[in-house]
Amino acid sequence: MIPLNEFRPVCRLEIPQQERLIPKFPVIDAHNHLTRTKDSAKLVEDMERFHIKHIIDLDGFWDERMDFQIRNYVERYPGKFSIFGRVDVSNIDAPDFERQARNRVIECVERGAAGLKFSKSLGVKLTDRNGSYLTPDDPRLQVIWATAAEYRLPVTIHIADPPSFFDCVIDHTHERYEELAAHPHWSYGKRPCPRFLELMEAQENLLQQNPDTTFIVAHVGSYAENLKEVSRMLDAYPNMNVDTAERISELGRQPYTARDFILKYQDRIVYGTDLLPKPANISGNYRFFETKDEFFPYNSFDEHNQGRWNIYGVYLPDGVLKKIYYKNALRLIPRLQGLVHYDD
Questions:
Q1: Helices 227-236 and 196-209 meet at what angle, rounded to 10?
Q2: Distance (Å, rounded) from C-alpha 28 to C-alpha 95?
Q3: Whole-angstrom distance, CA of residue 301 vs CA of residue 9
Q4: How many angstroms separate the most distant Cα atoms in the chain?
Q5: In whole angstroms, what is the distance from residue 243 CA to residue 59 CA?
Q6: Torsion angle, CA of 201/308/255/58, rounded to 10 degrees?
Q7: Domain range holding 215?
Q8: pLDDT exceeds cutoff 90 at 221
Q9: Is residue 16 part of a domain?
Q10: Which end of the chain is more exposed for a tag (fewer CB within 10 A), N or C?
């Protein structure tokens, strides 16, 4: 017997395989976190190597970190980077919270932010003085979404992790058992925070209550495992868009459904990775979008770190690829217009 984590079966299929480290068209990565690296020169070198035309850094925090990101990326490499600002909502109980929040959004605009970013902490971590969890549809946050709409700032928001992370029972039947065993702190099953479907309800309330605000709901609308439900929300809320960050593993194991979904909502999907541009991080992305390859690993480690499955390509037409790779980002994020240039 060998331990499961040492099991590495070699596929015996003899089928076409197309390595894809370079996209067919240069991309805008609309979902990344540049606080993960301090070597901006190496990052720009990798961007050139892998034909990444522009990266949106979602780490525009409200302290000196934003200053560093602006200096080290946006100002140092004009046209290569944009930043999405963040708003501190941990002071929700402050008497003048509404004024502070609005002023922070305006400050982001004045400092050149291309949008706003909110993390999953708003939903599963932050609480008010009464111990109640803050969710995106909390009326006290309305000033943020209204001010974003006023200044035409799109909002990228990560509302929920995969639904399997909220399971109370993680046993031999759980498809992400190995991942959660390796990272038990990713599990919300025994925490008192809102459940996955409660967060989806908050997401829908947010979209419904703010029709004039452009939202990019990260990670395929929080629910890549259920594209039928994401489709329902996209149909119901014209202000909803999604990015593909860190969900190629989910989309690629349902290639027929995913291809139909992408073709139908080709104007509402933006490309994002959530990862720095390295071969191990991007190898499956372009291959998924561009080829008919079958049964290939969603990362180059072939470690199935999310689950023990492989993925399949969806061979998108060139016109759809261009929309997902850059055209949709240029349209949804007004500050990119005039900053990022394409021949077509």
A1: 20
A2: 40
A3: 13
A4: 66
A5: 16
A6: 50
A7: 4-336
A8: yes
A9: yes
A10: N
**219 alpha-carbon distance from chain centroid:** 4
| CATH code, domain with 187 | 3.20.20.140
Indicate the range of 2-16, 147-161, 295-309, 322-336 predicted with least confidence.
295-309
Q: Decide if 343 is inside a domain.
A: no
Beta bridge partners of 118: 157
* 153: its two tokens: 């700032």
Assess if residue 39 is contained within a domain. yes
Place of tokens 């194991």: 253
| DSSP codes, 159-202 | ----GGGG-S--STT-TTHHHHHH-GGG--TTSSSPPHHHHHHH
Alpha carbons 27 and 47: distance in angstroms, whole number: 10
How much is the average pLDDT of 230-256? 98
DSSP 252: T
Contacts of 43 (CB under 8 A, 6+ apart): 34, 37, 55, 276, 277
Residue 342 lies in a domain: no
How many domains does the structure of the chain reveal? 1
pLDDT confidence of residue 294: 96
pLDDT band, residue 65 (cuts 50/70/90): confident
pLDDT one-digit tens code per residue, 187-214: 999 999 999 999 999 999 999 999 999 9
Distance CA 177, CA 74 (A): 40
φ, ψ for residue 207, nearest 5 deg: -65, -40
272: which residues sit within 8 A by CB, 6+ positions away?
Answer: 29, 30, 31, 32, 56, 218, 243, 244, 245
